[in-house]
Amino acid sequence: MRKGLSVVLISAVLACGSGCGPKQDVENMAGAASAAGFGVSCIWNEGYSAFPSITVFNGKYYVAFREAKSHVFDENGSAAGKARILVSDDGEKWTSAGLIEKEGYDLRDPKLSVTPDNRLMVTMGGSVYEDRVLVKFIPQVSFSSDGRSFTPARAVVFDENITDEREWIWRVTWKGDIGYGVTYGEHFALVSTRDGVHYDFVKELDQDRANAPGEATIRFTPDGRMLMMVRCDSGDCKGRWGVSDYPYTEWTWQTMEMHLGGPDFILLENGTVVAGTRYSFPSGRNKTMILRGTEKGDFEEMYLVPSGGDTSYPGFLQVGDTVWMVYYSCHGSRAGAVDGTMYDFDSLRADRHQAAIYMARFPVSAVSF
Question: Which of 20, 166, 299, 300 is in Cβ range 3.0-4.6 Å of 293 for a Cys bridge?
Answer without folding.
Answer: 299
